[in-house]
Amino acid sequence: MPRTLLESLIQKLRGCNVHGDAEESPVAILWTDPRSEWKPLLPLLRQQLPELLCLGDYDPDHQQGPALWLRCIVDRSLPAAVAAAGQIPVIYLPGISRQELRAGEGCPWALEPLIELMFRGSLWLQRNGRDWTLAAFLSSSDALDLDLAGDQGTKAALSRALAEVASVPLDELRGKRLEAKDFDDYLVPDAIRDLLQWMADPPAFQQRCSQEQWAVLCSTWKKDLKFDPAKDGELSAAERLTKGKGGWDKVWQRFAENPTAFPGIPELLRRVEPEQMGLAVGGQDLSRWPSHNAACEAQVLAGLQALAGKSHAEACRCVRELEAQHGERRGWIWAQLGFSPMAKLLEPLGLLAHRTDQPLVGSTPAEFIEPYTADGWEADLSAWRALAMASTAQEDVVRKVVAALLCPWLDDTASRFQKAVASTGLPSPQDQGAITADPGEVLLFADGLRYDVARQLQKELEVMGITGTLSTRWAGLPTVTATAKPAITPLIGEIQGQALPEDFAPTFNSGKATSAAELRKALTAQGYTVLGDDELNIPSGPEARGWLEVGDLDHRGHQLQNDLPKVIHDEIDRLALRIQKLLDAGWRSVKVVTDHGWLFCPDGLPIAELPKHLTASKWARCAAIKGDSQVPVPTAAWSWNPSEQFATPSGAACFNTGGSYSYAHGGISLQECLTPVLVVSGGASSAPAVAITEISWKGLRCNLEVSGGTAGMTADLRREAAGGPSVATTAKPVDDGGARLLVEDDELEGVAVVAVLLSPDGRVIAQRRTVVGGGA
């Protein structure tokens, strides 16, 4: 979240990257400012918004020029390029309003080259189409949502203090009514802050500082810090800042509180390297020298690159030592500024090295559960977290380090687990019992939700105030969707397995396939409501039970392979938001289940040989055996018929199917077999027990019959979804158990709509689909 006005402004500008319904991104973002109110922020914006272009006199060093030059830059017809490669250019137009730019033939000739960009680009405007003024940006709920007085004196004071207010933490501005005095106070010299701002960019600071302010500041600095800017200069200030003597430690602490507010200081400190200044560094706090931090970053990179060829134990030891030496640097200000990426990567890599130093052991499958659910899962988590954190420049070395630490541990642990399974077996789905939903509960099937990912989902939900319990269950074997998904439904008693098919799918007792569509039909027959991923899914009553299939993790794993870690957090966020919506819609709880886990190791899991002629079908981690063939790999019992055997590779290996797998499942390992069951609650359980019991049409008039509910309810007809636009002439109150609604637009006849009931506060509390005019 943005911490300052400046950060929020940059976020809003960069977020204006849509262009109607067009599939392509806009070529530029046009920022009109008729009164040039935002102009004082240009020096700061040029440092933190490198894609910024500005209309004005030709000054390519500051990415400023006339309209024709700006147009050529956007169209890439000039060799000059926007400083931030890959970013959509933001074109700031001081003194220009949206009306002036849209005036067509009346547009000033100097602006005419920009008119065409309005159609290929996006205008940064308020929701009502007006230009963003300072006052609007501070007070609008679409921006900072601050309590700003509306008088002209306050607006003038805000304009005067804009450069100072831009870097003030937003928390200091919230919770009070902002008036002229509040902004004028920021013009009263804050000696330490102003010193840091001067150090960050002396010419720019003095240019915006009045003679009176500058005189007061110089006097204060001489008195409190024994520092004369005219005599000593900024290099002397930088040297004193790193030493922290004579009151300068307070200056450093102020810098450390919010280093992003003073973007020029890191470069200033680099100009006073200890060696260049002839300074003795003994006894000094080296954390204040960016050059020392940079040298440490190089040491970490070299240490990680040197792992090649080392044994697994030695690699684990080396990474743990690097973490012990450099972990503290994550608390230095250089990490906040993004100058310590290797130190940050050492956090998950260090945990990975710690967890993979020893394999998990057990003589029975049950004995593996406790060590894995206690902390063993953190090896899998830290592996994909490290890869998700790595930048493009770091990806190659991080992949190699993760593979060196993770792969031997995966292989050894899987081999030990397979021995335990071969000795005692895993409980069948029937032995474990069917998973069912309690009244008021949704069974949410999340495809491929591995245990470590479920732990992160649980953590994300707790942040949202949604708490629950996490337990485990054994997946069906082999751990592929066709076998394992039916095993985590309430339908176990209706499913059987006979001869092992090539796709590993059991059938219903009736002989029908256990496809996704047939599973949903059978669930509906058992009284479950099959929910849609993009609907509100309000429960029909307190006894309702739901089934919902959400999540794309398994599909993305097969599709992305090495790049899977980059999208795992997005999948977690999607699941968390969907669960929150279900609870807010009135479901009492959500039980999250999955079919199987998976193995992941960058740059490929080991390869196991299995001749094709011995198999009826061969997947990455399992194979159906052809006839009575004898295979040179282990075999295991199919969960739906233990007399049927399938082939499985040893350890963490994948069969030679013609490709390399970083992501795979279907075999026997803790990661694939031990699945999570997460039950959460905490939503709005007080939703009124209300339902639309019947809908009838007479022409374009809709009659609703309603049961239950509270006083003050209204009814409406919505286009496409419950949250869509209304198609009724007006919403009507629910009276005497019903409501009558009229659709005036006869072109809507035959169009699918959603009848909704609304609580007095406007919340949808019941819904039912219908067709305008009646009919299917």
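Above is the first protein from milestone M3; the second protein from the same milestone is given next.
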Amino acid sequence: MPGENLSRDEARERAALLSVDGYEVSLDVRSAVGEDTGDGPRTFRSVTTIRFRCNEPGASSFADLLAPSVTAVSLNGRDLDPSEVFDGSRILLEDLAADNELVVDAQCAYSRTGEGLHRFVDPEDGEVYLYTQYEPADSRRVFANFEQPDLKAPYRFEVRAPEGWTVWSNGAGEVQDGVWRFAETKPISTYITCVVAGPYHYVTDSYERVFEDGTRLEIPLGALCRKGLARHFDADDVFLVTKQGLDFFHDHFDYPYPFGKYDQAFVPEYNLGAMENPGLVTFREEYIFRGKVTQASYEARANVILHEMAHMWFGDLVTMEWWDDLWLKESFADFMGSFSLVGATRFTDGWITFANRRKAWAYRADQLPSTHPVTADIRDLQDAKLNFDGITYAKGASVLKQLVAYVGQDAFLEGARRYFKRHAYGNTRLGDLLAVLEETSGRDMGAWARSWLQTAGVNSLTPQVVLGADGRIEELAVVQEASVIAPADHPELRPHRVAVGLYQRSEVGALERYARAETDVAGARTVVSELAGADAPDLVLVNDDDLTYCKIRFDETSLATLREHLGTLTDPLARALCWSALWNLTRDALLPARDFVDLVLRFAGRETDIGVLQMLHAWAESALVHYAAPQWRETGGRALAEGALGELRQAEPGSEHQLAWARFFATTASAPNDLELLKSLLDGTEEIAGLDVDQELRWAFLEPLAAHGVADEKALAAELARDDTASGKRHQVRCLAARPSADVKARAWEQVVDSDALSNALVEATIAGFGQASQRELLAPYASRYFEAIERVWTERSIQIGMDVVRGLFPALQDSPGTVEAADTWLAAHEGAAPALRRLVLEARDDLARALRGQACDAAAGTSAA
């Protein structure tokens, strides 16, 4: 990655000097098919013409390009020597005129890491598929450009493709003599241009809208995937959500969709969930479901579709000036995804998922030593890559939900409407948004922004209840504490608009809300006077209805109530909030892991929301693997497996709850009887009524069998023969790496760390299989090897693969103070390492230290119980 970084200062200097009038990009991807010569990377021809102005004639600047070679460079008719002006990542531009034309003819490399122009060969039928992925700065791997978000320009693309292929780009396209030419785009940033090419399966539809003034809008819709997935592709549901979203955003944004057509491509080996390229959104193809999944999976896909659609306005129409204000697009899209999901689709419980699942991501990120304000300090592109995190997305969205409660929904949406009209096709900073919100709300947004957007950390809110002699509430207060994060404190006590709910057990045993007050919490202690005189509660839920972003704590009475009666809490959102709070207590070493596992075993079977149930399964597994005392893990593991099997057998046949418990049972199975049951379910000698062991579930059962030495290489090869697809190959690679053998681990390590032969998807699968919780001793030798290898990996590999390796292979399962010390030693000895690399190690080290604190808490509970 050396020489590829772009700093904020360089970007600002270039933006002050240059403005771009337009691009013409010609790609020849006919080389994507046919035999590989094996002599260097497989390449394609890229010819780019850029017309741009310079406000200081005679000055120098540079264009960006990552390519194996450059054939020719011409600036204003002057031929430049590529060996003199191109250094592998930048093209030097000297003696610029007022008006300039740059032409670059290059050989660019196809990608196998999901960055730039990714080339995928389908093992099922040998077909080749291409797609691009650029954010934050990988369009320079495909064509020469000025790679920063504030140098917007219109683009014209043309692509020469193999015979029989179809090509898509941001604009509408036409083909003639094998050349696809696309309509010029509106002014957009480099990172959201896009090309998809190959023998994709393509389905079409259309959206129509007549506005109040009588104008009519028609948007051609398309959806595409690999031919091998066509039989699984439920395009009708994709189009349904798409149309519902377009209606919703047209109703609320008062700005017609500005980018013509709306194609959605589901592509293989994708690193992200999706990407908001205007007119051609790309998604990971795992959103096409090959087997039975729960409604939570359909809800998640709908949320992503709507998230990317919101970007058409927040991010594409109006774009942040630099990555410091990434939240101006990602936080808004994350919020709008749930907002429109609930308001426009069948997934009306979307805020429950947001509270339980999405915010858990934010809470973790905001307690790391690398926490940062929502408006971050992004020094360069490597910083930007790492800041696509839980703070920028989920905390930012939570803050916006708090903002809606603070200024009102009408003022918030009117602010958005003015923002779009005022800054269409332009670039903005924080102040531009705050200005319109001040206009529409009449509030001073400066103090709110300083507290919520420009400080880091998460507050905790705890109720204090004082009862009078009559047994009623004499005083109820909310105590606010700031987070304390090493190495820096962020002691911000924020203003919170919250609802405080009081709950009692009814005569039939249900735990129900009987009183609620909405109030502003400020400072260290706030009295909620509206609740004085209310009956004594069994449970006080601060942040009822999830209006603000905070960690919920409980008073002693409330916690005791939840320990005994959590399953009787009737409101699903309140129940999800309580589960989330209990998980945060576990992560903070305030609730023993065995207590959390016990709560899951006793009450998860009553959970009606399937998304919450699946989150509880993930948390219970994490509690056992990371936060439970080592001496209790075996006991806890048996209890989880027995509980999961019991719930599986009791679940309604054919229900999504049955499927969720079947998958959870597979993750917890380790005893011989449990493994034998999985094997019997696979070979059909045993059945559970209603449980369809389809191909995806077969792989879910095979991984624990492989990890415990029951399924060998021959069995996995046989399964791949049964499912000889790209998805099957990923599953097989993961299962192969999961086997309990020193030779297997050595081979997996070599394939990921010492070789770049695997694609990004197979690197991810290998890492996932490598780190099995049941194989701590087998993995112990790799702790030291990890710290020896990571700087080399970071230097030699792409940033995406570097992130995958550094995060995925950190020796978290070697959970001892010695591993923390090893991380500290590496950090002390590598102060000059890339800041992004140091951040990844520091985060993983902090997660491990947190796990050790949790283990100590759990061990103390075990000692006291004994």
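Note on the second protein: The two ends are 54 Å apart (CA to CA).
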